[in-house]
Design brief:
The protein is mostly helical. The protein has one domain. The chain has seven helices and no strands. Helix 1 crosses helix 5. The longest helix has 61 residues. It is elongated and about 90 Å long. The relative contact order is 0.12.
């Protein structure tokens, strides 16, 4: 039986540190854009099917509620002296870059002005089309601001994940040493399962909170996912192989 000869020209390409970081950053941006798109589409669907009587007020109420959480419960942070001001700044910068810097606000203003009876050309047609979707466009812009505020809240909540992770890793290594000196059995299956579940839990917390179609206190998202993330790190470090 003829053995397969490996092609010497084929080389395994391994990513370096910089390329790995850039790939992870690109994937993170991709997930954020998908979450933003999903939240906008959900808001539009809700305006048609679930809360047609609220209309634009639904997304406006969400924005006020998210900022209210910051004003009442997030007055201090190790990352900034004023969390509420930080979130408002992020929302304003996002609004400026996406809508004002790109000229979208000017275009909407130009299209929304009612044409004169004698006016012809493209603008009267665009005006009639815009009138049919005006509320959806404004709602999408407001949801983008809600998304920015939530993004700022999650950024401010990252020290919680870091603190939980530190405690979890220390606890896991203590359990590992007890297992090592007590002659306990190790399981590579549990180790790899826990290792692979850590990062998806962190990403899932961001995606779920950013895409929520209603206002929810961030504590109900941050604490459960931080606990699950810490638990996965505890299991990973405690089931790490006994002998290096």
């Amino acid at each position: 039986m003829t053995e397969a000869v490996a092609d010497p020209r084929r080389r395994e390409v391994r990513q370096g540190l910089v390329s790995t970081m850039l790939t992870s950053l690109a994937q993170g941006v991709q997930w954020l854009l998908l979450a933003l798109l999903f939240s906008i589409l959900t808001e539009w669907a809700g305006m048609v099917f679930w809360w047609p009587e609220e209309g634009l007020q639904h997304s406006r109420s969400m924005l006020e509620a998210e900022i209210g959480y910051l004003d009442s419960d997030f007055r201090r942070s190790i990352m900034t002296s004023s969390p509420a001001e930080f979130a408002k700044t992020v929302a304003d910068k996002t609004y400026y870059v996406l809508f004002e810097f790109t000229g979208l606000v000017d275009l909407i203003t130009w299209v929304s002005i009612p044409p004169t009876p004698l006016e012809t050309g493209l603008r009267p047609k665009l005006h009639s089309l815009y009138q049919a979707v005006a509320e959806f466009v404004i709602a999408g812009m407001q949801v983008t601001q809600v998304f920015s505020v939530r993004l700022a809240i999650l950024t401010l909540a990252m020290p919680v994940f870091a603190l939980f992770s530190l405690v979890a890793i220390v606890d896991g290594f203590v359990k590992r040493d007890l297992r090592r000196w007590g002659g306990g059995r190790e399981s590579s299956f549990v180790y790899h399962w826990a290792k692979r579940s850590a990062m998806p839990l962190l990403v899932l917390s961001w995606v779920i909170y950013l895409a929520l179609p209603f206002s929810l206190h961030p504590t109900f998202i941050v604490l459960p996912f931080a606990t699950l993330f810490a638990f996965s790190l505890t299991v990973t470090s405690s089931t790490f192989k006994k002998y290096l």
